[in-house]
Amino acid sequence: MKRPVLAGDLARFLGTFFVLFALGALVLVIVAIVERQFAEHRLDQVNANAVTVAGNTLRADVDTAKGDASLLRSIPLVSQFMSSPTPASRESVEHLLTTLVATRGDYLQARLIDNHGMEVLRINHTTQGVRTTPMDKLQNKASRPYFIATANLPVGAFYVSPLDLNIEHGQIERPFVRTLRVGTPVFGNDGSRLGMIIINLDGNQLLNQFGMDARLSQGSMWLVDRGGNWLIGPDPDREWRFMQPDAAQATVATDMPLVWKAVQTQVKGQEQGSFGYVVFDTIDLNPDAGPDSPQLRIISVTKMPTVTGTLLSRGYLLCLLLLLAPMLILAAWLTRLRIGYRAIHEEMRTNARLLENILQHSSVAIKVKDTDGRIVRINKTAAELIGRPPEELIGKDVESIATAESAAMVREHDREVITKRSVTAYEEQVNYLGGFHTLLTRRFPVTDALGEIAGVGVISMDITQRIHMEQVLRVAKLEAESANRAKSLFLANMSHELRTPLNSIIGLSELTLEQAYDREDNETAEVMQRVVNAGRHLLSLINDVLDISRVESGRIELHNEVARADTLVESVINAMQPLASAHANKLLLEVAPDVGLVCTDVTRLRQIMLNLIGNAIKFTRNGEVKVALSCDDDRLQIVVSDTGIGMTPEQLQRVFEPFEQADRSIARRFGGSGLGLTISRQLVDLMGGQIKATSDIHCGSVFTVSLPLGDIDGFEPPAPPVMGEGSFAHRRRPVVLVVDDDSDACELVRNALERNGINVVSASSGREALALTRSLRPAVMVLDIMLGDMTGWDVLAALRADPEHAELPVILCTVTDPEQRTGVLGVIEHLTKPFDRDHLTRLVQRFVGKVKRGRLLVVDDDDFYRNKIAAELREEGYQVETAPNGQHALSVMREQAPDLLLLDMVMPGMDGVAVVEAMRAEQALALVPIMLVTAADITPEMSRTLYERAALLVRKGEADLTDVVRQVHHLLDRLQLPMSEVKEAT
């Protein structure tokens, strides 16, 4: 009777096993198919990236050499040496080339060759180091192809040779010296050709770097020339045969015709065939040379994985073998289920022992109590918390093992479980006999066979140490956050210390630059332009760091105002147009018809747009940058797109991180702090908007900003102020009052305004400023906040409290950042030092009205009278110079003739008559109008002589200073009329 039973059990076991085996095999096949597809995709990505990296490296090396050659030809020292060499210039140029070759490391030679092909200077990089070739060892290269090609190039063009073997004296140099040459002609200032610069790149290093890049690919990666000749191939013995006349031909076409057929007609791409998977790219070493540009091809070939090969791999076979044992066990277990009822009681006892072991060896405290609160079961962990052995605690209640307060709390929690028949969880502080503990306790009802409550189960976890650690970590976190805020506040408060010296540096440099242009001193102007550019660049970096610090410290507040979105963005584009032109980019603006008003912080939005458009221009060459405006529901959409270098997905993920750029090469090539996009994102977040970026490598990037339109309902543009006869502006003098305790800063503002014909009076303290305001009545005040005796805010408050001067326009020009008080105190504009000179001039001209361009010269030996009349005229907006005698007056007029001369007659040395006669003798001074201001008696003879030249006579004592000023106004107005009107007026 037992045999049929055993045979049936075996049959069931085998049937179960084969079903499980078939399912496992099917799973492995599916996994192999997915793995093959993944491997193909990964192979595509890896090889494409490897080919791109290798190609970019080769292009970058050639571009670096071209950049060095371009730099050398632009250095005046090089052209001077080639046009008229001297020992001193030769030594300087030799030092320059030696430094370049030593610094680069991958240059074999750097040479200067004259128009006849003779080497003028040659620097060699050998294993012994960088050496200058003696003059008697220099050679004539007139017959070399690179000389002939470079000699025919126009200004600014480059010659790049193919990557070939170096030939010396008609023979290929052994061992092989692989060389790539970059050349460019050198022209003099008169346009004459002086010679050329030739740089030999070390081809061995280029190929070694290519070999390192090739390790990134799966399979093999080779390098061939335009004709498919092997430079780096599968067989080293077949490389460079095309340059060896006695060697048999060896190319991709002869060795791998299917591969060559797939790649020869395309510039780049991927192909798959019987030969495997091919990724290739073509490198134009000199794109400007057109179809004759030397080319290199990178070819990566690898075999594609198959499902059969994947299944037959060691891993899958091992996996299949490993599955056999679990399948056998599972089949046996399923078979045993049918006969397992006989061992059910044994299993129950085993499970009971297991539960007991879990109870006793658990790391959490477990107790079971009856309805009266007495302990029925307890494990070792719970007993250790209480401080007694487990056997002593059986039958004890909570009052006997804890303090009264803790016992009352535990009783209450137990009663809640029994009453509500629910599970509860509490964090409890319990004071047991063994000590004080913080417990995370979960209670649940224990029921009997009938479902009635028989007791309470308690599971507790001791979190005392964790609570303590959390407190420690919380304190550490608060300290770290406090330190970070302190750091941010420190940086945000550093604006004064950082911008104060920069204001002087940039301002004085701009002043020196303007003076150099006036003197036509181009050499000094070029140097000072570099200083100004460097200072502006440093200011940009400092502003970025301070901006992000202010955001982190919470010191940026938004000041919303209503403006036209298209006008705002158009102004930013106009400002960025010179930068776009410098990079040969087109800067376009597209505005949808529904774009209108927006209520936002205009300053911050302009800062965001400057960052995004500036980034797009910086990373685009000879391309297009487009800004598109549109409205979507109640949001303004701003899209900035470019056709630049683009970003990889990895670079795109971290593009908004602080101090991050795409990679180190990007930072070296394009510069920048890496904070612009971070600041833009944080500002957009503050404004309640969103910013996102998309990009494709080599295809450009797109940044999209979405901002709420804000509250623009009911907005009406403010009416322009009426400037009547009794208005504030009409009663003010056309003078600018500059208030700054820094004499250099004050002089910079004065110089910027006076160059545009605006009269300036300065004050070095708050009290002096208030006094001059009351006596001078200026048209506008340019005010610094940091003064010696009081702050600029105090000066503003005093002005606004005075009815006579409450409407005085004030422009803040300070190193501090804008504050909310600027709006409260009626500030027209807040300029941050170093300021924009043209912007300040435009602001001031809004309030001084039409500037009187008259330039006056006052000549009088009476110092008091001369200075007094000059001060009165300056307050009226004229540019006034003074002279104490006639000789000095003639010197001043010969430098620049005035529009009107106020001349005293009686002066020591050279009197007024002599001055008039001297002016009549000089053509440049003969037509200068003269206004005689004198107390002397004029004889009839003198009158005839003087009235031929003088336009007006005013006697001292008969006319006060106000009358003199009025006569100057009247005389200049007459002189500016046509002759017919002058006669009518007279």
General description of the model:
With 986 residues, this protein is of the alpha+beta class. It is built from 32 helices and 36 strands. The strands form eight sheets. Strands 1, 2, 3, 4, 5, 8 and 9 form a seven-stranded antiparallel beta sheet that branches. Strands 11-10-14-13-12 form a five-stranded antiparallel beta sheet, sandwiched between helices. Strand 1 (107-114) and strand 2 form a beta hairpin. The longest helix is centred in the first third of the chain and has 73 residues, at 2-74. The chain is flat and about 145 Å long. Mean pLDDT is 79; it is low at 1-5, 667-672, 717-730 and 977-986. Residues 493-711 form the Histidine kinase domain. Pfam families: HATPase_c, HisKA, HK_sensor_dom_bact, PAS_4, Response_reg. The modification 4-aspartylphosphate is found at residues 784, 904.
